[in-house]
């Protein structure tokens, strides 16, 4: 059933192309809420969910004027009570136009002053340092000619990443990822790319240890729910998306730090605080994600329904504390795991990349473990089917492109 233009829905989940959007739609739908979705592609798996009453699409880059206009139109048509974003670009759009959009719907995001610190790695790391929380050794670089001094200070291998994940560029903005660099040429190249539009980059020591993340839900500065997970494999191998992950008890040596940090910032709502351990096992802060993260499904499946908490908080309803969750649940994002394994074969020999044999065995052995899979939910099968169809279509396109490149090379 689809609502007519005059019906309203309880929530509109933005960034429907992302996995966490589907998690939010399912979670709110199961609570009997009426949910609509807004994304960039008609083929987004979330739009196929039985709980998605209406799906709207705008292919424009998230921070562009066209995207704002499309969102305003969607708000007029759907009239949602609450808006739930998950992508960094959309968070940026909502921050910029908060007053305008906030008149039409309640926005499930923390206050601006707290958000400003949380989305900025430079500011969150420096606050963490003031609080005595471990951070990676690192320096700020603004241009490639600062790379040599940074290498002297930090040494190689190193990780180069933007201070803010979302950067404006000539195409209306993009999310820029962390890069591992092993020599000066790679470092110069990464810094040139990340600082191209005037941005600053963090040049950090490379940490080889476990990746652990604490998800927190706070209202009025009080933690109402906490959850932790570690990622055994990520895509790309350096990190980014966690593709094989497990719920764990909140580690004592970083849970308190995460809570102190979030409370010092005054960050209400959902936040995922990411850490990676150094060679001696000490946790070092990576970043804070003040929006639903892709790995949130593991929390939901382990018993902490963060999207539902987020909805209640944004809607102005009371949020009761949630205690306890199932530890030891594994989840896998199969497409990401496949990509990560292919990347491991291509990047063999680089720091943190499993040798080819180990990567292939690890990929195969994960089928034998009791495991939940992203997208797969027997009560709502269509999104998984759509995700599979999208994957095969992309593979087909990639093969066709590779074939025509090969043919061109032969004929040239
Ligand atoms: N200094 C570092 N040493 C080792 N790995 C890192 C380092 N910085 C980032 N990474 C890896 O890259 C991933 C992405 O970095 P992060 O700081 O979370 O930025 P973003 O998620 O915004 O790209 C992390 O989860 C981690 O796995
Ligand atoms: Mg991250």
Describe the structure concisely for a colleague.
The chain has 412 residues and is α/β, with parallel strands linked by helices. The chain has helices at 19-30, 65-78, 88-96, 98-102, 112-118, 121-130, 147-154, 184-194, 252-265, 296-302, 306-314, 334-346, 356-365, 382-411, and strands at residues 11-14, 35-39, 52-57, 82-84, 106-107, 138-141, 158-162, 166-167, 174-175, 179-181, 201-205, 211-219, 222-235, 241-248, 269-277, 283-289, 330-332, 372-373. α1 crosses α11 (306-314) and α12 packs antiparallel against α13.
Summarize the topology.
Elements: E1 11-14, H1 19-30, E2 35-39, E3 52-57, H2 65-78, E4 82-84, H3 88-96, H4 98-102, E5 106-107, H5 112-118, H6 121-130, E6 138-141, H7 147-154, E7 158-162, E8 166-167, E9 174-175, E10 179-181, H8 184-194, E11 201-205, E12 211-219, E13 222-235, E14 241-248, H9 252-265, E15 269-277, E16 283-289, H10 296-302, H11 306-314, E17 330-332, H12 334-346, H13 356-365, E18 372-373, H14 382-411
Parallel strand pairs: 1-2, 1-4, 2-3, 4-5, 17-18
Antiparallel strand pairs: 6-11, 7-10, 7-11, 8-9, 12-13, 12-15, 13-14, 14-17, 15-16
The structure holds adenosine-5'-diphosphate and magnesium ion.
Walk me through this protein's architecture.
This protein has 412 residues and is an alpha/beta fold. It folds into 3 domains: 99 residues, 3-Layer(aba) Sandwich (Rossmann fold), CATH 3.40.50.20; 69 residues, Dna Ligase, domain 1, CATH 3.30.1490; 124 residues, D-amino Acid Aminotransferase, Chain A, domain 1, CATH 3.30.470. Helix content is 39%, strand content 23%. The chain contains 14 helices and 18 strands. The strands form 4 sheets. The protein has a 7-stranded mixed β-sheet, with helices on both faces. Strands 3-2-1-4-5 form a 5-stranded parallel β-sheet, with helices on both faces. Strand 12 and strand 13 form a beta hairpin. Helix 1 crosses helix 11 and helix 12 runs antiparallel to helix 13. The longest helix has 30 residues. It starts with 10 loop residues before the first strand and ends with a helix. The N terminus is likely disordered.
